């Protein structure tokens, strides 16, 4: 959070609110969002159907098979990611991996012709709302709790949410 806030101070300052036109300049925030989608994809399983017989990695897949693509496991694959369980946005610093469906190791919006048609809107909203929440407020956990004590257990479903709601206390931090 401190690193995101520092970047926001450098790019936006503390005298106005962050705007949509700022978000492309928020490199660290965008790395944080990639890292969050990697570890906690909104849709943990993509469900597709094959349109013809095919062979993938030596596995024969007959036409009309129901195919589950486990994006949750792809994001935590240790053959692809160093220290996959660690939240480490800097891993994207020297990397061209994008989340728009071109790089199969990070596909929070799916890929190809049935990927998410709302991706652009979704990305704008996530970037802007998160930037505003981090920019306008400092956040603390209640009862002197520290971040490592947070229960990050997920509830699997069509979309994946936290098992326990996040409760955090905001304090306003801008100049006006
Ligand atoms: C952060 C926000 C969002 C995420 C992470 C997300 C993710 C996804 C994913 C993973 C899929 C399935 C892709 C696949 O099966 O390969 C999907 C499908 C879809 N999404 Fe999104 N989505 C988001 C926002 C939105 C928004 C804002 C809209 C509409 C305004 C939208 C509309 C749809 C629709 C209609 C489909 C079904 C597409 C189809 O079956 O052809 N999504 N989304």
Q: Can you give me a brief rundown of this structure?
A:
With 176 residues, the protein is α+β, with helices and mostly antiparallel strands. The chain has helices at 2-11, 27-39, 71-75, 119-136; strands at 45-49, 54-56, 59-61, 66-70, 137-140, 154-155, 161-162, 169-172.
- What is the average per-residue confidence, as pLDDT, rounded to a whole number? 96
Query: How would you sum up the major sheet?
Result: 2 strands, antiparallel
Anisotropy-based shape: elongated
What is the tally of beta strands? Answer: 8
Helix/strand order: HHEEEEHHEEEE
| Percentage of residues in DSSP E strands | 15-25%
Cα end-to-end separation: 21 Å
Reading side by side through the largest sheet, how are the strands ordered? 1-4
What ions, cofactors and ligands are bound? protoporphyrin IX containing FE
Number of helices: 4
Give the CATH level 1 class.
Mainly Alpha
Detail the poorly predicted runs. Answer: none
* Rg: 19 Å
- The CATH topology label is Cytochrome p450
The CATH superfamily is identified as Cytochrome P450
Tell me roughly what share of residues is in helical segments: 25-40%
Structural class: alpha+beta
CATH architecture name: Orthogonal Bundle
What is the total number of structural domains? 1
Write the layout of secondary structure elements.
Layout: H1 2-11, H2 27-39, E1 45-49, E2 54-56, E3 59-61, E4 66-70, H3 71-75, H4 119-136, E5 137-140, E6 154-155, E7 161-162, E8 169-172
Antiparallel strand pairs: 1-4, 2-3, 5-8, 6-7
The structure holds protoporphyrin IX containing FE.
